[in-house]
Structure prediction request, 280 residues.
Amino acid sequence: MKQHTLKTACTFRGTGLHTGRPVSLEVCPAPAGHGLVFQRTDLPGAPCVPALAANAGRTRRSTLLQAGRAKVRTPEHLLSALYALGVDNALLRLDAEEVPILDGSARPFAEAFLAAGLEAQDADRKPIVVTKPFVYADTRSGSTLRIDPAEDFSVEVTVDYPSRVVGVQRARFDAGTDFAAQVAPSRTFCFKKEVWMMRLTGLIRGGSLDNALVVDEPRGYVGDPALHFDNEPARHKLLDLLGDLSLAGRPIRGRVQAYKPGHRFNAHALQLFLATPCHE
Ligand SMILES: [Zn+2]
Prediction:
């Protein structure tokens, strides 16, 4: 299988979910072997931040990438679309710290990339081939990540909230899944009781009912209750996990199963996986 990039550049304008700041993002074609690399065009010298697990920093409610003093916040929905659609190489030019949240899903990204089209490049993909089972469990949160050898890449996610609205839900992605239709439209979500605390600690300044599902326990969803899927929260956690797995820097050939995944857990689990001799 050859590496791929986009045929043409795609531009997105919006605001950051947590910073609330306006931002413009240009996703540009890049040569084979380049990988997915952010560039902060607003900073002196326009420093680059490769989307790699080694650059994943401490996170609160979203993923953070950092190289030197240059940071990129909330890259996960953009990276999810690139990874799931098989875009190996792209330069992600950003003129602020946080990727635009758009409608809280990955649909605008996926639709733009499919419209731009993918171009095969003159270099082979080098997948990370899982050779032995890997398991990581976080006893404090109860989250687990398991990666087993398999012929193809697949991801299964189970969420388990003490919530009458969300509760236990599952979602799955594999080679036969239409990411743009089945995963990308699922929106980010939070619980109404957490909103004031997140606002108090400087988060979700750009959050609104236009870009997030809000769960009002035990009544249901606030505002527009029209879910895109019955299990939209689980599908969104799957979307997030695909974005976080993209930080492996290469496609993973293996079966991934996650229970109660979250960004901080995902980043730590992926770093441990990459450091463990269970793949080649
Ligand atoms: Zn998300």
